[in-house]
Amino acid sequence: MTRYLITGAGGMLAHDLRAVLADRPVTALARAELDITDPEACRAAVHGHDVVLNTAAYTAVDAAEHDPEAAHRVNALGPQHLARAAAEAGAVLVQYSTDYVFGGDTPPGNEHPWAEDAPLRPISVYGSSKAEGERRARAEHPEGVIIARTAWLYGAHGRSFVTAIRERAATGEPLDVVDDQWGQPTWTHDVAERTIALLDHGVRAGIVHATAGGRTTWFGFARAIVAAAGLDPALVRPAATVPGARAAARPHWSVLGHDGWARLGVAPLRPWPAAFAEAAAAIGWTDPPVVAPHPATAPPAPPTSPSIPGASS
Ligand SMILES: NC(=O)C1=CN([C@@H]2O[C@H](COP(=O)(O)OP(=O)(O)OC[C@H]3O[C@@H](n4cnc5c(N)ncnc54)[C@H](O)[C@@H]3O)[C@@H](O)[C@H]2O)C=CC1
């Protein structure tokens, strides 16, 4: 029976991987139990497993701009250590990566979905560190690394764009959300389920885009989130990206192509509206969040920023 190791087990995607693998032998190690920057610890942890699902990552996109070494250690060297350990153990490594490995060369008006083999041109430290992690993992274990690039994740077990928008909308204040960055909101459950389907199909190497079908902007997604919660979608207003407003640049075009799935004989993730509708019902996002009442003497807190750009990626 296949034995699975999940790294970064405290994270959002890891939770749903554990749920999908609930009836199989799984070791799930949180950061305190396995630090993927430690090559010896990686070797010891991978030993005895057939599949390594690496969800561990330095995911603070803006903070990475100020601490590139930390991002590199976790996102570039970590996957390399795990790939080496997987090669020694005869295991497959699934390395989760990001849409932010792209973004450097899409002139407006010339957008098409990024193919799996499109050149990597990140525009942030985080994206560069993840791109380097892809390269190092594949070089270390060419026959046994699957790169699964995902994006715009939301799920039941973590903070995300969905939780931020729900909390802001529940205050009744209007929300300005960027309408010029395109992508694919993706449920962690679907990423987990499709990844395991890929492995069950016998795939041991390759690149897939583990993002939902379709496309929207952060504004479009925010409206869907607010509508699902039974709140007024008109609260969400379209805004333009303010250059330099955040430490790390965001790609304006993060729509990933899904042809790789057909080549491997496995169906891709479903379109984002259907996935979000099911997620909202399953997670309890069809009701507005309960916001703590403000003390009678204190005025309501103003929004902390004029717009809500995209969350992490
Ligand atoms: N959240 C998103 O929107 C997106 C996430 N991704 C990628 O998907 C994967 C999973 O993301 P999430 O579950 O959202 O991340 P998360 O931030 O919820 O979980 C990541 C986990 O990694 C752990 N971690 C950090 N440094 C570590 C280290 N040195 N050793 C071991 N564990 C460490 C953290 O403690 C955390 O529990 C990551 O590879 C991320 O880069 C890609 C695109 C979008």
Question: Can you walk me through this structure?
Answer:
The longest helix is centred in the first third of the chain and has 22 residues, at 68-89. This protein is α/β, with parallel strands linked by helices. The protein has helices at residues 12-20, 39-46, 61-64, 68-89, 125-140, 161-170, 188-200, 218-228, 259-264, 272-283, and strands at residues 4-7, 26-29, 51-54, 92-98, 145-150, 153-154, 175-178, 182-183, 186-187, 206-209, 216-217, 236-239, 307-308. Helix 5 (125-140) links the parallel strand 4 (92-98) and strand 5. The strands form four sheets. Strands 2-1-3-4-5-10 form a six-stranded parallel sheet, sandwiched between helices. Strands 12-7-13 form a three-stranded parallel sheet, covered by helices on one side. 35% of the residues lie in helices and 15% in strands. It has a domain at 4-159 and 184-209: 3-Layer(aba) Sandwich (Rossmann fold), CATH 3.40.50. It has ten helices and 13 strands. The radius of gyration is 19 Å and the shape is globular. Helix 1 (12-20) packs across helix 7 (188-200), helix 2 packs parallel to helix 4 (68-89) and helix 4 packs parallel to helix 5. The protein binds 1,4-dihydronicotinamide adenine dinucleotide. The site of 1,4-dihydronicotinamide adenine dinucleotide has 29 residues, from helix 1, helix 4 and strand 4. Residues 291-313 are annotated as: Disordered. Residues 291-306 have a biased composition (Pro residues). GO terms for molecular function: dTDP-4-dehydrorhamnose reductase activity. Keywords: NADP, Oxidoreductase. Pathway: Carbohydrate biosynthesis; dTDP-L-rhamnose biosynthesis.
